[in-house]
Structures are given as C-alpha cells and as structure tokens.
Amino acid sequence: MSTDPRMVVNVQRLNDFMDRHRLSAVIARSGQNFSYLAGFGSPGTLARLLDLTDSPRGVMLLWPRHGEPTLVLNGAAVPVARRDCWIKQIAVYDAYVESPYAVLCDVIKKGGLERERIGGEKDYISARHWEEIQHALPHATLVECSEMMDSVRAVKTPGEIALLKRGADLLDEAYLEVFPTIRPGETEREVHSRIVYACLKRGALWAHGMLNSNRNDAPFVGERENVLHKGDVIRNDYIAYLWEGYPGHQSRTVVLGKPTAEQQRIYTTLHGIYRRTIDHCRAGVLASDVYRFVVAEFGKQGWPYEIVPLCGHSVGSWWHQQEPILTKGRDVPLEEGMVLAIEPVHGYWHLQDMIVVRRGAPDLLSSRLSTDSMFAVEV
Fold first, then answer.
1. Is the pTM for the entire model greater than 0.85?
2. Which of 13, 19, 31, 75 could pair with 50 as two cysteines, CB 3.0-4.6 Å apart?
3. Long-range contacts: 289-297, Cβ < 8 Å, 24+?
C-alpha cells in the first residue's frame, strides 16, 4: 500500500471490516467514500458527478482487499486526479459513449475478482447500474456495504484529524475577518457572501452554509434580503472544505451591539449545556445517550428540544454530516478517534464545535475562536 502522505485512509480499520464482511473488494461510488479513499475533493461540475447516481459521467473507485486501488474516471476528471490523488492506477472511459460500469467490470476481471464477494453502495449505485454489474459479473456476489463504510470512516486517522483542524482554523479565521464588519442596515445575504468569499480566498475548495438573524422566520431556508438591526442575534452554520475534501464546520453566536441582560442569560445557559454535552462525548457512550442528555438538560430550563432532530454528528470527507448521528435510536457507542460536530440548538441560539472523542475529556479541534462569550459586534 502507498506511503504517499495524501493517503489518510484508516487502512487497518478498513481491512478489519472487509475481513469481517468477507469482502474481496469495495466499489466506492458516493462522494463520501470516493473522496475518503482517493484523498482529494472534486471541484465544480466534477463534484456533482459524485452525487448524481444517474450521471453518464460518474466516477468511482475499486478498492481491493489485496493490491492497489483503481480509479474509474471520464476523461475530464483525469487531470485533477493526476494532480491531487495518490492513486496511480486509472481506468478511463469515453463519457456518453461507454458505460463507466462496463469499464469498472473490466477492472474487476483484470484483478481476478470476478468470482469474489464485492461490496457496493446501494445508496449511490442505481438499481439499473447494480443490475448492469450483476449481468457483467454473473459469478460475483455483490453485497451492500454503505453501513460498513460509514463505520470505517467514523474513526479518524491522525492525518484526517490534522486536515479537520486545518479546516476548522480556516473557517474561524473567516469568521474573525467578517463578524467585526457587520453593520446595521446590511442584509443577511450580503454578510453571507462575505463569509463564503473569506473562506475561498483562504484556500477553501468550496464553502456553504447559512446565516440568519432572529428576524428571519425560516432559519433553515437560507439567507434573504432581511435587513439586520442593532440588537439582532445572528445565527450561522457554515462548512468550508479543503482541497483534500475535509471541512471545518462550526457555528458562533453573534449579537449586533452590546448584548442585553436577557440575551446574556440565554447564552450563558445554553453555553453551559453545550460544554456539558461536549464533556459527555466520551468513548463508550452511546450516540443516542448524548441526544437524551441534551433533551434532559433543555427540559430543566423549560426549553423543548424541537428545532432540529439531532444534537450533533460525525464529520468527514466530502459531506459534513455523517454517522454516527447524535439522535434518538442511534445506539452506537462512540469510539476514540471519532470527530464530532456538537450543536445543541435553541431557537436562533446556535453553538457548534468539532471535537475528537477520547477515553477522557474530548479534544477541541475548532479552538481558534472561543465560544466562552457571544461575539458582540461594536456598532
């Protein structure tokens, strides 16, 4: 296996899970698994090809249990892969003319895997393409492996943690640049555009998120032409992805002007719950128990927990919200090395940090901008 520093895959964990599931190979078709195994993010249109399961220009990766992995790409995706990916074996198909799955099956046959048990993502390989693989490889056993790969990705390597730390610092630095410049009379959309630009100019591959004041009646819909006023609480929730595919993902509570006594009371109360929730995230604790802890803490304040059906989630390559999700019914034990974004939300009061789960107290990754107090903008 490659020793290229761009390869940050948890290989031993992947091998263990493949052995447990008796898999000779895995087909990675989703953005999460392709980017995780390949070690790079895809820009622009190439990014959409990872998410559109019916695309005639889809890209994928074959990871054998023994031997070197192979990328299956259309011609337009090759230059970026040659530049940014540690994987050297590339099978290229003629987009719109050849089926990428036909080329994938040729790669499987050349690797001597046509009679083996192979994992595929039913979440991202369409029913038509699943049938195409089975028709081309009648002696192979094709089984679903999405949940297995979720478990593999959940525990991060030191290389992954370093990338997530870089992403967190990039996003906090963008916040530190933009927050002090917010002024009454601006719109949500204007401030949002400055945050996205601040991320991009610092080297982010792309950034997305939302910014709403307490005057916005649809906080998850996105920014509007709502005008900001002195005294407004400004909620934000952004994700800034590095070129390697790993994000920074945090939220900071901003108030436009000096906070009132009531605003300070709410923030102090929420921040206390927030800190206790982070401390609760230790190896061995169930994801569902963290959620129940937050609901109970909110209940002590007379606050119903109803804005969002979770209080956090794992963070990884390509898509920020990954398993385990901290919600009811997720009876999955937290493991040392998991990276979680913790975000108990109360109305427009939104705090979020990325932490690394340990046996004792978690490590805080997004430490560049402290949440000990609200970010009060002088106006």
1. yes
2. 31
3. 290/326, 290/334, 291/326, 291/327, 291/328, 291/330, 292/328, 294/326, 294/344, 297/273, 297/344
* Domain with 39 in it: 11-154
Instruction: Report how far residue 249's alpha carbon sits from residue 61's, in angstroms, rounded to the nearest whole number.
Output: 27
What is residue 366's three-state secondary structure? coil
Tokens representing 72 are: 């299956």
* Rounded CA separation 273/85 (Å): 42
What average pLDDT score do residues 126-140 get? 97
Q: 191-210: per-residue pLDDT in tens?
A: 999 999 999 999 999 999 99
Q: What are phi and psi of 50, to 5 degrees?
A: -80, -25
Q: Give the pLDDT of residue 6.
A: 74
274-299 pLDDT, tens digit per residue, is 999 999 999 999 999 999 999 999 99
Residues 195 and 342 in one domain: yes
The 3 state secondary structure assigned to 194-233 is HHHHHHHHCCCCEEEEEEEECCCCCCCCCCCCCECCCCCE
pLDDT tens digit sequence for 42-101? 988 888 888 888 889 999 999 999 999 999 999 999 999 999 999 999 999 999 999 999
Residues 352 and 215 in one domain: yes
Q: Which of 100, 121, 154 is the last residue of a domain?
A: 154
Q: Are 306 and 350 in contact (CB under 8 A)?
A: no
CA-based angle 345:312:223, to the nearest 5? Answer: 50
Q: How are beta strands 233-241 and 247-250 bridged, if at all?
A: antiparallel
Torsion of CA 88, 93, 95, 99, to 10 degrees: -120
Query: Nearest-5° angle of CA 14, CA 353, CA 347?
Result: 125
